[in-house]
Amino acid sequence: MGNEISYPLKPFLVESCKEAFWDRCLSIIDLMSPKMLQVNADPHFFTQVFADLKKESGGRSGGAHCAGGSARSGGAEGRG
């Protein structure tokens, strides 16, 4: 099966080195994991994030504009 688990890897490789790509993935995961857990655990935070995503998408349905957007609700603030 190789590197491609659920969708092709190549469209997401923006670095020339796969190791740099995976390092970037892991840094994003490390940065955003607390917020993802909060989305799951806190209904108010979920509602806020959902509203922000809907606003960012212009009210469109579908997920074509998910990758590469701003992490307004994420980030290092509030970590610890």
From TrEMBL:
Q: Where does the record place Gly residues bias?
A: 59-80
* InterPro entries tied to this protein: CDK5_activator (IPR004944), Cyclin-like_sf (IPR036915)
List, alphabetically, the GO terms of the cellular component aspect.
growth cone; nucleus; perikaryon; perinuclear region of cytoplasm; plasma membrane; protein kinase 5 complex
- GO molecular function per UniProt: cyclin-dependent protein serine/threonine kinase activator activity; protein kinase binding
Source taxon at top rank: Eukaryota
Q: What is this protein called?
A: Cyclin-dependent kinase 5 activator 1
Q: How does it assemble?
A: Heterodimer composed of a catalytic subunit CDK5 and a regulatory subunit CDK5R1 (p25) and macromolecular complex composed of at least CDK5, CDK5R1 (p35) and CDK5RAP1 or CDK5RAP2 or CDK5RAP3. Only the heterodimer shows kinase activity. Interacts with EPHA4 and NGEF; may mediate the activation of NGEF by EPHA4. Interacts with RASGRF2. The complex p35/CDK5 interacts with CLOCK.
| Disordered: annotated segments | 56-80
- Compartment(s) of residence: Cell membrane; Cell projection, Neuron projection; Cytoplasm, Perinuclear region; Nucleus
In which family does this protein belong, per the annotation? Answer: Belongs to the cyclin-dependent kinase 5 activator family.
* Keyword entries, A-Z: Biological rhythms, Cell membrane, Cell projection, Cytoplasm, Lipoprotein, Membrane, Nucleus, Phosphoprotein, Ubl conjugation
- Purpose of the protein: p35 is a neuron specific activator of CDK5. The complex p35/CDK5 is required for neurite outgrowth and cortical lamination. Involved in dendritic spine morphogenesis by mediating the EFNA1-EPHA4 signaling. Activator of TPKII. The complex p35/CDK5 participates in the regulation of the circadian clock by modulating the function of CLOCK protein: phosphorylates CLOCK at 'Thr-451' and 'Thr-461' and regulates the transcriptional activity of the CLOCK-BMAL1 heterodimer in association with altered stability and subcellular distribution.
Gene Ontology biological-process annotations:
axon guidance; brain development; rhythmic process
How this chain sits in the membrane, per its record, is: Lipid-anchor
